[in-house]
Design a protein that fits this description.
Layout: H1 3-44, E1 51-54, E2 70-75, H2 78-90, E3 94-99, E4 112-118, H3 126-139, E5 140-151, H4 157-174, E6 191-199, E7 204-211, E8 224-227
Parallel strand pairs: 1-2, 1-4, 2-3, 4-5, 6-8
Antiparallel strand pairs: 5-7, 6-7
S-adenosylmethionine (SAM) binds next to α1.
């Protein structure tokens, strides 16, 4: 019964990202260069085999795709995909970009070894987190992995405070939120966290997820939870792109 909510989310998100696409890289540039790139590079160290990048956006992950890999990137916003096409052309990898809603991925079950999703689940309300994870799981091979990089609620009061003031802007401009609740829905979606690492005063998390099903080969269990060296040196009240 999530379909109606998912349809609204896709509609609102498409509108927001089609509007912001021409400015996206400019607005997010300071974050991209100061810390996002570093985390993208960490995340893609775990990407192997056939890869699906969900919510590929303007293609900021493309420079970090493993050498010689073939990656399919999907997004609901055609305008974001247009910008990603430029990056794809410059890439040494084979990149295919498609317009697609993450709630109805047009791929058979068990299609990918790795599914990546960076700063996308923050566009979803709580009730859509589990259906989204279930759809990602469906297209991931039983022994494959889902790599998530996203905002989460920080444990630091200072960060929570300035994010609180920026939240209305984030919601309006990027249909997004800082307090993504994905982790709470991992188990319900039949997945488990095999690795978790937090960054930026606990405000950003990298999760590696794997199917909970019996036929899945255990990878890096039990869960390792690491706090990476915090690189956030100053809190600049600049609107932060999701
Ligand atoms: C903040 S951007 C992140 C883009 C990119 N992954 C990155 O790390 O820079 C969020 C992207 O998710 C896409 N998105 C949001 N909801 C989606 C959905 N239901 N299906 C597919 N893409 C979606 C948006 O269109 C947007 O391009």
């Amino acid at each position: 019964m999530f379909e109606a909510s998912a349809a609204i989310q896709a509609q609102e998100t498409t509108r927001a990202y089609d509007r912001i696409a021409p400015l996206y890289d400019l607005i997010d540039g300071i974050y991209e260069h100061s810390w996002k790139r570093r985390l993208r590079s960490k995340l893609f160290q775990y990407a192997t085999g056939r890869i699906l990048d969900v919510g590929v956006g303007t293609g900021c992950n493309i420079p970090f795709y493993p050498k010689d890999s073939h990656v399919i990137g999907v997004d609901v916003s055609e305008k974001m995909l247009e910008r990603a096409r430029g990056r794809a052309q410059e890439s040494a990898c084979s990149v295919t970009l498609k317009s697609m809603n993450l709630f109805s991925l047009d791929f058979p079950d068990n299609s990918f070894d790795t599914v990546t999703i960076t700063f996308v689940l923050l566009c979803l309300p709580d009730e859509l987190q589990e259906p989204a994870l279930r759809e990602l799981k469906r297209v991931t091979k039983p022994d494959g992995q889902i790599l998530v990089l996203d905002y989460q609620m920080s444990s630091k009061p200072g960060v929570r405070l300035w994010r609180k003031y920026l939240s209305p802007w984030l919601k309006w401009a990027f249909a997004a939120r800082f307090d993504s609740t994905t982790e709470q829905y991992v188990e319900k979606a039949g997945l488990s966290i095999t690795k978790k690492q937090t960054f930026m005063s606990d405000g950003v998390a990298m999760l590696i997820l794997q199917s909970d099903e019996d036929n899945a080969a255990p990878v890096e269990k039990p869960v390792t939870v690491e706090k990476a060296v915090d690189v956030e040196t100053s809190i600049v009240p600049i609107p932060e792109v999701a």
